[in-house]
Amino acid sequence: MKIGEAARVSGVSARSLRYYEDEGLIVPGRCGNGFRDYCQSTIDRVLVVRSLLESGLPVRLVREALPHLAEGTDRGTDVVCEEFLHEVRSYRDRLAARIAVLVEQQSALDAYLRKARRTDP
Predict the structure, then answer these.
(1) H or E stretch including 13?
(2) Of the listed ranges 42-46, 56-60, 75-79, 90-94, the one predicted with least confidence
(3) C-beta of residue 3 within 8 angstroms of C-beta of residue 36
């Protein structure tokens, strides 16, 4: 299917599909005229990519994970997947630390605003 239909079927914009391709996340086929040709397996991969990106993972981690998500479950894949899960946990922990800082800043601003309201004429 062409990019417009692939966008409709996957729920991802044509622009996002091009971006995923530019980032090496998907590799659509090409027709004789050079147009992109999306098969069902590429659409399935697009859905996985979108899900991972929407969860907040950076493109770098998604790119690293994709080959292993498509492979079978052999011993080598288990090790790589464990490494990937470690990176995801680490990313989540860094995100939680950033959220904690933002919550502290928000609380400080709320306190400032409460104090400012009390001193308004």
Answers:
(1) none
(2) 75-79
(3) yes
For CA atoms 59, 61, 63, 66, give the dihedral sign.
negative
Closest CA to 57 of 100, 92, 99: 92
Burial class (CB in 10 A: 0-12, 13-18, 19+), 57: buried
What is the C-alpha separation between 6 and 37, in angstroms, rounded? Answer: 9
Question: Do 44 and 75 fall into the same domain?
Answer: no
Does 60 reside within a domain? Answer: no
C-alpha–C-alpha distance, residues 69 and 52, integer Å = 11
Residue 62 lies in a domain: no
